Amino acid sequence: MHKILSLFILSCFLFFSCSDKKAKAKVDSGLMGETYVTQFGNVSMTLWKDLKRNGNDISLNGGENLKDDVRGISFSSDEFKINDLNYYKENFVNIGGKDDAQFILNLAVHLKRTDMYSNQVSIEDVVKGEYGHDLRTIQIRGKESYYDDNLCFLYATLQNGSKVALFQFVCHEKDMPFYYPELLKSLSSIQL
């Protein structure tokens, strides 16, 4: 009985070890600007470094206008040609992260901090406590229509319960990120 139990545990360990897909990425340049694509299992995540929206401002939270240069995160189940995550790890050596998921979000935060959005509270301001709050958790909430796309938002939850939009990403009905609990779990556990 003990041997059977041991073999069962070993087989489960080998199964999950082999089925675990590390986050990998490619960097690509296209009409929307430079993108960073990574893979979590069967879910692809794209981080836009410079997303251009035909010269139009994008409105967040009913009136907070962003400049044309929009940095965001997109989730998709489409297939991508995946290369190595080491490209960004080698070029952003000071970002750090206990795993690939945290590195990716740290990278997004780093890119976000380089923006100069006059009408949006930045994550750097929140972390510094300039608004009297500390960043507590990160979560993905909401959906808004923008032409033929849906904009979802990555929020920071402050200690007083209010939320600050940090990033936006395009998501389609079939690719809504809360369909992927394993990815949300990784993001929600990250503390900046």
UniProtKB/TrEMBL annotation:
This is Lipoprotein. It comes from the Bacteria.
